C-alpha cells in the first residue's frame, strides 16, 4: 500500500494514525461487537463517544461554558442560511465582509432573509488578495451580527487578526482554518465549520454558538434549521452523523497528542512559511496574495508559463503529490496543507517544485 501526499482542499487528508485506529475498530468498537456505524445514537456506547468528542474539542479550543457545541449536518453551506434564519431577526440587518468566494456565497444566502450591508469589500480587478485592515471597516450599530470568513479557502487569503466588533456578535466561517491555531472563542458569537477540511469526514458540521444567540429564529424557520432544536437535544434531535462525529473525536485526540492547538500552530506555521519562501525565492512560481494575509492552510500558486501546468500536475502525481490543481476560478495550483498534511509532505512538494523549475523552466 502506498499512501500519497494529498493536497486536496476538501474533503482533505486525515491523519494516518486516525485512519489506522478507525480501521482497527471498524468491525468491533471496544468490545461492543459492532462498528460505530451500526450503533444506535442513543445507546450508551455512542453517547460516550459523543460526549468525549465534545469534551475534547472544548478542551482543545478552550471553549467557555456559555457556548454550545453542535454536531450538525448540511455543511457550511447550510449555515449560510441558518445563521441569518436564527440571528438576523433581532434587527433585520447584518454586516458582511466580502473577501473571497465563500463570503460571496454567504452574502448571497443572507440576502434572502434581511438587509445585508457589505462593510468591507476586497475585490480588486476581479481578484481577492487582501483583507481589510484591522481599523479599516465600520460596524453598523444596528447589525444583528457581523459575518466574515477568516480563511478564504479558494483564494488562500487569511485574516491575521480577529475583527473587533464591540457589542455586535462576530460570526465566523472557520471551515478551512478551525483547529489550525489557537483562537479566543470568547471574541465570537458563533463559529461554524464543515468538517471535511480540518476536522474529519464530510457530512459533519460543527457550530459553536454563544448561549444568548441560540434564541430567536425568524417565523417559519423549520425545526431542523433552528439552533434551539439542536441545542436542547444535544445534537440528537434526529440521527446525527454518528461516524463523522466519532472520527472527529479521534482527530481531537490526535490533536491533543500534537501538543494541542499551540503545538499544531507551530507545525502549520513552519509548513506555510517554508512553502511561501520557496515560492518567493523562485522567479518561476508566484503567489498573488498580500504577504500579510497569506493563508496557512491553502497556498495557491501559478507557474510563470501556464502551458506547463498539465505537465507539472502529471509529474507531481507520479511523485506521489496529488490534488494540486488550483480552483478553476483562480487557475494554477493550490496546495492545501491542513493539519493532517505532514511536514514531510510539504518538504517533498518543495523539492519537487525546485526540480521541476530546474529541468523545465
Ligand atoms: C469548503 C467551504 C465551505 C463549503 O462547505 P460545505 O460543507 O461544502 O458546505 C464554506 N466555507 C468555507 C470557508 C469553505 O472552505
How many extended strands?
A: 16
> What's the alpha carbon Rg, rounded to whole Å?
21 Å
Number of domains: 2
What is the CATH first-level class name of the largest domain? Alpha Beta
Assign the CATH superfamily of the largest domain.
Type I PLP-dependent aspartate aminotransferase-like (Major domain)
CATH architecture of the largest domain: 3-Layer(aba) Sandwich
**Distance N to C terminus:** 33 Å
Ligand inventory: pyridoxal-5'-phosphate
Q: What is the beta-strand fraction?
A: 15-25%
Helix % is 25-40%
Tally of DSSP helical segments: 9
CATH topology category name of the largest domain: Aspartate Aminotransferase, domain 2
Give average pLDDT, whole number: 97
- Output the strand order for the largest sheet: 2-12-11-10-7-3-4
Low-confidence stretches: none
- Profile the largest sheet: 7 strands, mixed
Shape assignment: globular
Q: What structural category do the secondary elements indicate?
A: alpha/beta
Order of helices and strands: EHHEHEHEEEEEEEEEHHHEEHEEH
Amino acid at each position: 500500500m502506498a499512501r500519497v501526499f494529498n493536497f486536496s482542499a476538501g474533503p482533505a487528508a486525515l491523519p494516518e494514525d486516525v485512519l489506522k485506529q478507525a480501521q482497527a475498530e471498524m468491525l468491533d468498537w471496544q468490545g461492543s461487537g459492532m462498528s460505530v456505524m451500526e450503533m444506535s445514537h442513543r445507546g450508551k456506547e455512542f453517547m460516550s463517544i459523543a460526549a468525549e468528542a465534545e469534551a475534547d474539542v472544548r478542551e482543545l479550543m478552550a471553549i467557555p461554558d456559555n457556548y454550545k457545541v453542535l454536531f450538525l449536518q448540511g455543511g457550511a453551506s447550510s449555515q449560510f442560511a441558518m445563521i441569518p434564519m436564527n440571528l438576523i431577526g433581532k434587527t433585520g440587518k447584518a454586516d458582511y465582509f466580502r473577501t473571497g468566494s465563500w463570503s460571496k456565497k454567504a452574502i448571497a444566502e443572507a440576502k434572502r432573509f434581511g438587509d445585508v450591508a457589505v462593510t468591507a469589500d476586497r475585490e480588486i480587478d476581479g481578484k481577492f488578495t487582501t483583507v481589510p485592515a484591522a481599523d479599516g471597516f465600520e460596524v453598523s450599530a444596528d447589525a444583528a451580527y457581523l459575518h466574515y470568513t477568516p480563511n478564504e479557502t479558494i483564494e488562500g487569503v487569511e485574516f491575521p487578526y480577529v475583527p473587533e466588533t464591540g457589542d455586535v456578535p462576530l460570526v465566523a466561517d472557520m471551515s478551512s482554518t478551525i483547529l489550525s491555531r489557537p483562537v479566543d472563542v470568547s471574541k465570537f458569537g458563533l463559529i461554524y465549520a464543515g468538517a471535511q477540511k480540518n476536522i474529519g469526514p464530510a457530512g459533519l458540521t460543527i457550530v459553536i454558538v454563544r448561549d444568548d444567540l441560540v434564541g430567536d429564529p425568524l417565523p417559519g424557520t423549520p425545526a431542523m434549521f433552528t439552533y434551539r432544536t439542536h441545542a436542547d437535544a444535544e445534537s440528537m434531535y434526529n440521527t446525527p452523523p454518528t461516524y463523522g462525529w466519532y472520527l472527529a473525536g479521534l482527530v481531537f485526540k490526535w490533536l491533543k497528542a500534537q501538543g494541542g492547538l499551540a503545538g499544531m500552530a507551530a507545525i502549520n506555521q513552519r509548513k506555510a512559511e517554508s512553502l511561501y519562501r520557496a515560492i518567493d525565492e523562485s522567479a518561476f512560481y508566484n503567489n498573488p496574495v498580500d504577504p500579510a494575509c497569506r493563508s496557512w492552510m491553502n497556498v495557491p500558486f501559478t507557474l510563470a508559463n501556464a502551458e506547463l501546468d498539465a505537465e507539472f500536475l502529471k509529474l507531481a502525481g507520479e511523485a506521489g503529490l496529488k490534488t494540486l490543481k488550483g480552483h478553476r476560478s483562480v487557475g494554477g495550483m493550490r496546495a492545501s496543507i491542513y493539519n493532517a498534511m505532514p511536514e514531510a509532505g510539504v518538504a517533498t512538494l518543495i523539492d519537487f517544485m525546485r526540480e521541476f523549475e530546474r529541468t523545465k523552466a
